[in-house]
What we know:
alpha/beta
Amino acid sequence: MAGLTHPNLVVLTGAGLSAESGVPTFRGSDGLWEGYRVEEVASPGAFKQTPELVHRFYNMRRASLKEVQPNAAHHALVRLEKEWPGSFLHVTQNVDDLNERAGAKKLLHMHGELKKVRCTGCRAVFTWEEDLDKYTPCPECRVTGTLRPDIVWFGEMPYYIEEITRALETVDIFICIGTSGVVYPAAGFARLAVEKGASRLIEINLEATEITSHFTEQRHGAASVEVPRLVGQLLSELA
Ligand code: APR
């Protein structure tokens, strides 16, 4: 980082960021995918065949957002966003709204959002707080059975890929927090950042991951502790 006064920063986050708020992660012993088969609830085929099950799964997750709050890691990332002198982009795979509730603005939800639904017919997108079922009419076109969670399912193309790729073209510092690094394309961003010349790559996770080898620094520990610590260090290095 020597010599760079306005380094460009990209942060990629995953389920580990929200774990300490009480939002379950996906993999691991008590992860969400332990209780569900992914293809039963998170695929376009499942939505076609058993929409009741898919709606129940996402209704449950949407409702559970009312029980959780942002933790120290979400707040620290917002501090970084506000105080960082170079360009800043936070790309999250998380579909919860905890970053926004902490005040995040420069944030892209590459896997969609629990609090949004969209119509597969007229393509309108709506903010949605309540339960949804296959009889809920689209507020725009009034057709029933077409509203779905605005979530990127397996086999679908994540959102904002062009914007993210553009940010990675000029990234100086790449930070990856709480992701297992097994779901692509997000899992490929660290490697891309290396190829594009990022000089500092920092991974925060409880443990080593599939993508750990791409990082110049690994910080093992809970996000609520390690993220505020890292943010404090990065900002004081610039001062
Ligand atoms: N602090 C830091 N890291 C943590 C914490 C914590 N408190 N708790 C868990 N982790 C780490 C785990 O060690 C694991 O590496 O967070 C990671 C969570 O991994 P996953 O459950 O696989 O979540 P994620 O990487 O976000 O999943 C990617 O998979 O199913 C899809 O679309 C879903 O966006 C999701 C994608």
